[in-house]
Amino acid sequence: MCIRDRYMGNMDLQALLQAQLGGMQQMGDMPLNDTAEQIQISSLALLKMLKHGKAGVPMEVMGLMLGEFVDDYTVRCIDVFAMPQTGTGVSVEAVDSVYQQT
Prior knowledge:
27% strand, alpha+beta, 3 helices, two-stranded antiparallel ribbon
């Protein structure tokens, strides 16, 4: 006897799912709304992000993304800007005093 049979009692996954739903109607091929979000990143912005991330190792890095909303589920990133800060899981300190909050 395999472990699956011992714990599932020879019940297939679809029957188990239907039992968990508590008698809801069978869903079948019901269309689902696509609510996945997408971001389109320009190649220049991606290269700048990778360079900034690599330069910050082993510290955390921070930055700003500039872009626009295309529609309800799509954002287009045109450019990125590195923030001159260093940080760890405990604190974040600005490298330049102009960016330091007092």
